[in-house]
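Blinded run. Sample ID left blank on purpose so nobody reads anything into the name before looking at the predicted structure. Input follows.
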Amino acid sequence: MRWSFLRARAGVCLFACLFACLGAVPRASAQQALPVQKLVEFIQSSIQQHMQDKEVAGFLKSVRLTERLDPRVVEDLQGQGAGPKTVAELNRLSEASASLSAAPPPPPPPMVSNGGPPPSYEDQQKILDAVREYALNYSQSLPNFLCLEVTRRYIDRNYKASDPNWGTYDRLISKLTYFDQQEKYDLMSRNDDSLYGKDYESVGGSISRGEFGTQLKEIFAPETSADFHWLRWGNLDGHKCHVYEFRVDQAHSKLTVDYAGQQHVTPGYHGLIYVEKGSNVILRVTVVPNMPPDFPLQDIRTILDYRNLDISGQQFLLPAFVTVYMRDGRIGSKNEKEFRSYRKYGVDTSITFDDVGDAPATQAPTEQGAPSNQESPGPGAKEQTPNK
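Blinded prediction complete.
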């Protein structure tokens, strides 16, 4: 309660400062005529400054757009954290501006990683076509195998995305069986206590599934109607990459998020695809669901990293690391998953977890020179199920 008054006073000053920076100082009695790019910058700044949803929405009532506001822009702002009242006003502005001319595309992001000029549009499309074919056939290229899935879970009870303070929660070890393009997970232990025969409901917390081909196939499937465009160059541990941005609207999404077995949602999502230059293989996929503002889980961000790994003397590009971030109210959670001890599936094949230590066997790759507003820290999860 003691911060209410101070925040309200600060909010008035903040509106003036934000719009002064955008070149449009608000007047109490006049409508503000804004182009879409200025509107987007304002909403993003209000999210970063943690302005009250009702204050932002209240000011939007006085805004008149000079260009058409695409509904996909509203969906993207919602995914970045715009509140429900703000989203409602943005949808109103989108409908009111439907007859106006389209807004020009935003300026391209700065080049990173000293990648040089982008490839031609024709080359960008050729690479994308090759990647699509690779992704749609990826599951069929994998052998039947077993591996260990080691999940280290962390929690922050007063989570701030800009300054997280992660504390260790637990460590789960599971046996993953991949047979006939289907994944099967058997929980083995939690913090070295045996959990044979138990299911994931017994341990609660957040889980994710779909790393072995399901995600790639759904992103690139024709019926998903994903929008792709070449974004920039990237550099993952010395591997020069084409970085493509993709977006899937809610109507075509198959990504599901479950909360405590009681609430379910299928949001649209967006993310990045890292394609190694030359080989055209996928090295990283990031996914950010556009969560409805009234859903308990927010700020879901994922990263899935691939590596060439050995199975019975043959090299296969396989998931190696997955990181999942999400927030439930003020509580943040982070899962770091590592896949190790791959071996070919057979009737007599067994797998143990004697070699699992407290630290990961290897480290996830890092990107050199990435712009902070482009990288999504966290992998693609088909289902995330936190239980209270």
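Unblinding after everyone has recorded impressions. Residues 121-344 form one domain.
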